[in-house]
Amino acid sequence: xxxxxxxxxxLDVTSLTxxxxxxxxxxxxxxxxxxxxxxxxxxxxxxxxDTDEGAFxxxxxxxxxxxxxxxxxxxxxxxxxxxxxxxxxxxVAGLSKxxxxxxxxxxxxxxxxxxxxxxxxxx
Length: 123
What we know:
Largest sheet: none
Order of helices and strands: HHHH
Strand content: under 5%
């Protein structure tokens, strides 16, 4: 029995059972940008707070609340795409450092640490 993929979601059950692959830099940057957009959206949502006033100055109703949610989401994604708070670049840099293997200390290619040349007299 096979389980079909969900159309339009990009989710496929067979991809979950395969061995994990190394993520490409594009995937990492996309995920980091989506994370930053989510954080910006939460900040915007918190900034609006819980008021009895609707999104467009009238009484609060579900339609205006939905419109404001869509506007916040779009604005947050636009901000993240243009650099946002700089979190995307910091996350990508951090994940890239983790993906880069550290040099093997047993290889013996490192020069021994020496004291810097100069005046060694106490000041």
